[in-house]
Amino acid sequence: QSVLTQPPSASGTPGQRVTISCSGSSPNIGSNAVNWYQQLPGTAPKLLIYSSNQRPAGVPDRFSGSKSGTSASLAISGLQSEDEADYYCAAWDDSLNAWVFGGGTKLTVL
Amino acid sequence: EVQLVESGGGLVQPGGSLRLSCAASGFTFSSFWMNWVRQAPGKGLEWVANIKQDGSEKYYVDSVKGRFTISRDNAKNSLYLQMNSLRAEDTAVYYCLRSMGVWGQGTTVTVSS
């Protein structure tokens, strides 16, 4: 049972826009920024979004993040086959004094 | 180029110990919090521990408190995770992270008799 809640799966067709949600609570998302990670099959995760809505250098602007209250979202526009991966949200939790992750969302490009 | 290279994983019996290392290069190691994150086979990501730049603050996930110890040697640009009293549920790929941004390639720990 993860502290942050994500849908286990999501899907879309090439070119579509998909969003993945991440629900938390006051000590984590409600108080701190959210990171998003992409994990392609068989590889180490990669930082996709930091500080809730910032993209590291090299991440396409098709990927965007937002946060409102105790929830966050990752949006992927212009979906491509290479976006098929697992996506995780994470935030620092002030009550646990720990980083907490969502359970992950498996994105399928149909 | 920023690089993190983990080592020290392997097969260990329940109750045994293992020390993971992470060699950092391409950045000023002493300027960053460092983290360990693990991923059990077929499962999601779980943060394990982190350590402040000068080692003065350390935090752990509840499931490893009292068994794992995170440490660093800024002179050697290295991060460590001493794992004692290992359990089957500690079986995972262990990743070293700079802050919560850059990831290493991971090292596999298998706890089994």
Describe the structure in your own words:
The complex is a heterodimer of chains A (110) and B (113). With 110 residues, chain A is mainly beta. Chain A has no helices and 9 strands. Chain A has strands spanning 9-12, 18-23, 34-39, 46-49, 63-68, 71-76, 85-93, 98-101, 105-109. In chain A, strands 1, 3, 4, 7, 8 and 9 form a 6-stranded mixed β-sheet that branches. Chain A has a 3-stranded antiparallel β-sheet with strand order 2-6-5, with no helix packed on it. In chain A, strand 7 (85-93) and strand 8 (98-101) form a beta hairpin. Chain A is globular, with a radius of gyration of 13 Å. The model of chain A has no long low-confidence stretch (mean pLDDT 97). With 113 residues, chain B is mostly beta strands. In chain B, 0% of the residues lie in helices and 51% in strands. Chain B contains no helices and 11 strands. Chain B has strands at residues 3-7, 10-12, 18-25, 34-39, 45-51, 58-60, 68-73, 78-83, 92-98, 102-103, 107-111. In chain B, strands 2, 4, 5, 6, 9, 10 and 11 form a 7-stranded mixed β-sheet that branches. In chain B, strands 1-3-8-7 form a 4-stranded antiparallel β-sheet, with no helix packed on it. Chain B starts with a strand and ends with a strand. The A-B interface holds A 2, 35, 37, 39, 44-47, 50, 56, 86, 88, 90, 96-104 and B 35, 37, 44-47, 50, 59-62, 95, 100-106.
Number of extended strands of chain B? 11
Q: Provide the gyration radius of chain B in Å.
A: 13 Å
Globally, the shape of chain A reads: globular
Average residue pLDDT of chain B: 98
Can I get a quick summary?
By secondary structure, chain A is an all-beta fold. Helix content of chain A is 0%, strand content 45%.
Topology readout:
The complex is a heterodimer of chains A (110) and B (113).
Chain A lengths: L8 E4 L5 E6 L10 E6 L6 E4 L13 E6 L2 E6 L8 E9 L4 E4 L3 E5 L1
Parallel strand pairs in A: 1-9
Antiparallel strand pairs in A: 2-6, 3-4, 3-7, 5-6, 7-8, 7-9
Chain B lengths: L2 E5 L2 E3 L5 E8 L8 E6 L5 E7 L6 E3 L7 E6 L4 E6 L8 E7 L3 E2 L3 E5 L2
